[in-house]
Design goal:
single chain; alpha/beta; Rossmann fold; 2 domains; five-stranded parallel sheet; elongated
């Protein structure tokens, strides 16, 4: 593939030659121009000279600049450059500070090439969309000018007012009512843990999902019945002894029975047998023990609610 035909430029920063080689070969096969660096200092130098669209960097690297320092250095010099992190230790505790600071996404070692592909493709689609939205904004300004001109002409003619023209509303054209809080990919977090909820909101928003939060089970059931989300993350720290009952209520109600539920609990709270019984009764999608494995949560959500 000729250089001009490349889809975009990717920089992979990792001190392991095998990781560099695997990523370069795989992404090159997808049509991207790929550069590699073995440490933070070299990565920053290449970011300056190659001006990549996307950087994938390991967190733990030898030398004076690890992946975290590289991330902040790149974001300081190139605020619009997308940077994703990869690590062998996937927990919310390590991901959230970087996600809050603007990291694009989080990849776990050993690298799943399909997840890598999905992440990079999604990033470049976002960049393309941003460019298209820029063009659309210009077009919108042109339309506003044209409409303003029309309104001026309208005041001096017998043309009917725009407010007098009633659109024809049919069952097919009737707009679908969606919760402003959730949007089309809304996930409801049911938890009393503000830190957990805040972390999950940031993580899910970064991956294209709208979020909402409810504290307390009685409020949760009432809210879910009134405004059904696309998925529910239920922290059993909230549910305690009534968690099973809450899930059963949701599954027995025709308006909420279809909603996929992810159960979150402290490590060791339930035995495998107990959880299997809960899953069988309530059709739980996944049982996630804290600290929550980021890749599993996001991957399973994307299987149910594509972004």
């Amino acid at each position: 593939m000729a250089e001009n035909d490349k889809k975009g430029t990717v920089l992979v920063v990792d001190d392991e030659p095998s990781i560099q080689s695997i990523c370069k070969r795989f992404l090159d096969g997808l049509g991207f121009e790929v550069h590699t660096a073995e440490n933070g200092e070299e990565g920053l130098s290449q970011a300056r000279s190659k001006n990549p669209d996307f950087i994938l960097t390991d967190i733990m690297m030898p030398g004076s600049m690890d992946g975290v320092k590289l991330f902040y250095a790149v974001k300081k010099e190139f605020p619009l450059m997308d940077v994703a992190i990869m690590t062998a230790y996937p927990t919310l505790e390590t991901a959230i500070p970087l996600l809050k600071a603007g990291a694009y996404d989080y990849l776990i070692k050993p690298i799943d090439l399909e997840l890598l592909k999905a992440m990079v493709v999604r990033c470049f689609e976002k960049r393309h969309l941003a460019k298209e939205l820029g063009k659309e904004k210009i077009l919108h300004q042109v339309v506003e000018i044209a409409y303003s001109t029309f309104k001026k002409l309208e005041t001096s003619s017998s043309l009917p007012s725009a407010t007098q023209i009633s659109p024809v509303v049919t069952p097919e054209s009737k707009p679908q009512v969606l919760s402003a809080e959730f949007g089309k990919r809304g996930v409801l977090i049911v938890s009393e843990d503000e830190q957990l909820s805040s972390s999950l909101k940031i993580l899910l928003n970064k991956n294209g999902y709208g979020t909402g939060q409810v504290i307390g089970e009685s409020k949760a059931v009432e809210f879910i019945e009134a405004t059904p989300p696309q998925a529910i993350l239920l922290d059993l720290k909230v549910a305690r002894a009534d968690g099973h009952l809450t899930l059963l209520k949701l599954k027995k109600n025709p308006s909420t029975a279809f909603i996929p539920v992810f159960v979150i609990a402290e490590r060791g709270l339930y035995s495998t047998k107990t959880f299997l019984n809960i899953s069988e009764d309530c059709e739980v999608v996944a049982y996630l023990e804290k600290p929550i494995p980021i890749s599993i949560l996001v991957q399973k959500l994307k299987e149910i609610i594509p972004v």
